[in-house]
Design goal:
The protein is mainly alpha-helical. It has a domain of 65 residues: Endolytic murein transglycosylase (Dna Ligase, domain 1), CATH 3.30.1490. The chain has 7 helices and 2 strands; from the N terminus they run H-H-H-E-H-H-H-E-H. It has a two-stranded antiparallel ribbon. Helix 4 runs antiparallel to helix 5. It starts with a helix and ends in a 6-residue tail after the last helix.
């Protein structure tokens, strides 16, 4: 029994000593990784500097001819305003409401679909007691031309007065 315990102890000692020696004399891959990361950082910094120089160059050209850029800006704005009038269609989307869904997630889902601009307004409107108690589960078709009150009535299953 003594000899087996002694052999076990010697084995543990040798294992610990070999691990300590390996850690001390083995090549550190961490140092190599650090050097690689430093090289990558230097490369990125040079790329950033080049891009910043490129950004400065167009501003210098714009300063030389401000009247041309102003006329171009006016032209672009007039084109976008006519495009907005042509493409201002009513968006419609289906919102899915599951059991135990929060008012925040309903507002966020409606905002993500582009139905309303601020989902927080819908969340606050739905927090009123007459709406909060009667939110229905299911799929609801909503349009971007609906008011927040109309959206709340659709979600709660109440009749919409048009």
């Amino acid at each position: 029994m003594k000899s087996s315990m002694r052999a076990f102890g010697i084995g543990l000692f040798l294992a610990g000593a070999s691990l300590a020696l390996y850690d001390q004399f083995a090549p550190n891959s961490e140092k190599k990784d650090i050097k690689e990361y430093e090289q990558q950082i230097e490369e990125y910094e040079t790329k950033i500097a080049k891009l910043e120089k490129q950004l400065e160059q167009p501003t210098n050209e714009q300063q030389k001819s401000p009247t041309a850029s102003v006329s171009k800006d006016k032209e672009i704005m007039s084109n976008t305003s006519t495009e907005k009038n042509d493409t201002e269609d009513v968006l419609s989307a289906t919102i899915y409401i599951y059991e135990n869904v929060t008012l925040y997630s309903i507002g966020q889902q409606v905002e993500d679909e582009g139905i309303i601009a601020n989902g927080r307004e819908l969340e606050l409107f739905l927090s009123k007691p007459e709406y909060a108690r009667s939110i229905q589960k299911g799929a609801f078709d909503l349009r971007s031309d609906m008011t927040i009150e109309q959206i709340a009535k659709v979600i709660t299953g109440k009749k919409i007065e048009e």
